[in-house]
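Recall the central idea of this unit: under ordinary conditions, the amino acid sequence of a chain determines the structure it adopts. In this exercise we apply that idea directly, starting from the sequence alone.
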Amino acid sequence: MKLRKGFKLNEVCGQSFVVPMGETNIDFSKIIALNASSLLLWKRMEEGDFEVDDLVKVLLDEYEVEEEVARRDVIGIIEQFKKENALEE
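Accordingly, the structure predicted from this sequence is:
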C-alpha cells in the first residue's frame, strides 16, 4: 500500500490534520484529524510503500503495547484512510 497523492499533513495549534488538496471547494468533512499514534503512522506512510506489519512494528517500537492491540489499531487506521480515499493498493 501507499499514500495517494493529493493529501497534505498540516498542523494548527498543536493538532495535526491531513487535508485533501486540489479541491475547488474544500469540504471540511474530509479533513482527517490525527492523534499521536496515527501521526506517527502517517509519517511512516509518507516514506513510501508499506504493509500492515511495517506499521505494527512502528507502534511496537514506540509504545509499550501488545502486538494484537497494535495490529487492531493499525487495521482501524488503514480502514479510516481507505474510507477517505487516502490510500492506494
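The chain is about 45% helix and 20% strand.
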